[in-house]
Protein: Threonine synthase
Organism: Deinococcus lacus
Amino acid sequence: MQYVSTRGHTLGTFTDVLLSGLAPDGGLAMPQSIPVLGTDQLEQLRHLSYPDLAYEVMRPFISDIPERDLRQLLQKTYQADTFGSPEITPLTPLGTSGLYLLELSNGPTLAFKDIAMQFLGHAFEYVLERENRRINILGATSGDTGSAAEYAMLGKDRINVFMLSPRGRMSRFQQAQMYSLNEPNIHNIAVEGVFDDCQDLVKAVNADAEFKARYDIGAVNSINWGRVLAQAVYYFRGYFALKLPAGAEADFCVPSGNFGNVFAGYLAKLMGLPIGQLVVASNENSVLNEFFEHGTYHVWPAERVAVTSSPSMDIGKASNFERYLYLISGQDAQQTQQWWEAVAGGQPVTLTGTLHWPHVTASGFRSGQSSHAQRLDTIRRIDREYGRLIDPHTADGVFVGERLKRAGIPMICLETALPAKFEETVYEAVGRLPERPERFAGLEARSRYASELPNDSEALKALIARALVARTLGDS
Ligand SMILES: *Cc1c(COP(=O)(O)O)cnc(C)c1O
């Protein structure tokens, strides 16, 4: 399988795009074609174990890792020890409502991002070893991505992680989860600023091509194709767990921010999985809902993005959305580029009434949004009616999913984090603290290891250079 950029450049094979962020032309990596599985082929996947299913779903997109090695990578990644059960992503019905929770958050950091990030950890290690390379991952996080990346890269020889986070602005649990790591290859950097400042620092370092090349700077952000691909697997898994007759439809509802998770669902649908509606759930930051309701997409400036009680969805620019528009345009790179230049320049792009709108409608996407009050009410109600505590992001999904539930068609809501990770909001909703997995007992009391950094890219570069010199000396 060859990959191309959404802006037209040819990019190479899977391992070529795995380690890189944006394509050189500013676009995102996409497979040249998307293989479609027939009903008989789908039926053969029904009873596979998670790693075997992952192999069958991902294999067509990965032509440059030998079968044995890829199987081994997936076996190593999707273990009951890491994800709490051999199902990896168990499906739980909410009573007889026809709503289901697909549990994606039983991994090391209690959010769905572990599922793809754990794969990336093993896949990076494999490719770097094969090519005798090293990489220094530089990223910015508002909470979940950073911890998932750090726990996935822990102790990996050829990888260092430099993760910027806005000092004092994550949930107490999230801060403690990251800053309590005391590992030679993990560098937490608490920046004097907000999340956008962290992201700008990463951009500034990446803009320095000389520094970037000299220090092998890489990324694992949400546009990483390996993450999208690994996420497609659990849509298959969730669908098969319903035990529907062959070909019967199911709907999915996905709490969304950067459009990475739900885009993976769209990939599964394009591969032939009988998904009817793909419901995008937004919080108060409703750029995606605006598009699917009114046909207009535009980026919200940072000052318009609200700080909400489902913070991992506080995003004004859905970085994976370009992939969707690229497919909607009929893989027309020129059209995609034109749209994206408009969006980047602050102009809205409206697709209603154009040749493209019927493709949007046909793609099965629906959407909705939730407010703080609706989020709290949903957490309370699902607890009362089904005895099940959910986190604020999952609550956004359940709230929207309930509204768009079709009679007789199951609606699978993706559980994107465990309530323990956002206990302040859960406490506000139900007046008690959620259970916390034992390994996190007393987390907040542990020692913290984070460097403090002013909002200054030169200071960041100096910190990276110093840390790498120290590591090299320590290694030898
Ligand atoms: C990252 C995240 C989301 C949003 O996922 P996208 O792939 O960015 O759309 C939703 N909920 C939680 C808990 C997250 O960590």
